[in-house]
Amino acid sequence: MFQRVISAPLVAAAVLSLAACEAPAAKTETVSGSVIYRERMALPPGAEVSVQLVDVSRADAPSITLAETTIQPKSQVPIPYVLSYDPARIESGHSYALQARISDQGKLLFINTTHHPYVPGEAKQADILVERTR
């Protein structure tokens, strides 16, 4: 019994000291802006907006998604977004772009049809124009 009394405080102290050694949270960068479209129409109530930061360096391969956020808009355009990403995943000499799409119940309604280049660490704000799919 004496051992239990002594060992319990020692275990608690060890757990607390290990918790203090936890690695610091990873640094994140953010880019924000608005997803916009020119068509004069309202989005359906269940629409979702997806914004991605992608590595588009390799012309012969699909882009690599580095970060993504999905928004359920509370209003019509412009639709604000904030996208957080890990700067440690950014590689020198690579090219990056922002992509956006709007869908409703899995059906694609809008997508960006032009390239929206993004230079991580430099630009903090970027609007993305999307066009209606046919």
Describe the structure.
The protein has 134 residues and is mainly beta. The protein has one domain (25-132): Immunoglobulin-like (Sandwich). It is 14% helix and 38% strand. It has 1 helix and 9 strands. Strands 2, 3, 5, 6, 7 and 9 form a 6-stranded antiparallel β-sheet that branches. The longest helix has 19 residues, at 2-20. The model has no long low-confidence stretch (mean pLDDT 87). This is Lipoprotein. Residues 1-25 form the signal peptide. Keywords: Plasmid, Signal. Pfam families: YscW (PF09619).
Short description:
This is Lipoprotein. Strands 2, 3, 5, 6, 7 and 9 form a 6-stranded antiparallel β-sheet that branches. Strands 4-1-8 form a 3-stranded mixed β-sheet, with no helix packed on it. Helices cover 14% and strands 38% of the residues.
Q: What is the residue-averaged pLDDT?
A: 87
Number of domains: 1
Main sheet overview:
6 strands, antiparallel
CATH third-tier fold name:
Immunoglobulin-like
What count of helical segments does DSSP give? 1
CATH class: Mainly Beta
- Which residues sit in consecutive blocks of at least 5 with pLDDT less than 50? none
CATH architecture: Sandwich
End-to-end Cα distance: 76 Å
Percentage of β-strand residues: 35-45%
Percent range for helical residues?
A: 10-25%
Sheet/helix structural class:
mainly beta
Q: What key attributes describe this structure?
A:
single chain; 134 residues; mainly beta; Immunoglobulin-like; six-stranded antiparallel beta sheet; three-stranded mixed beta sheet; 1 helix; plasmid; Lipoprotein_YbaY-like; Pilotin
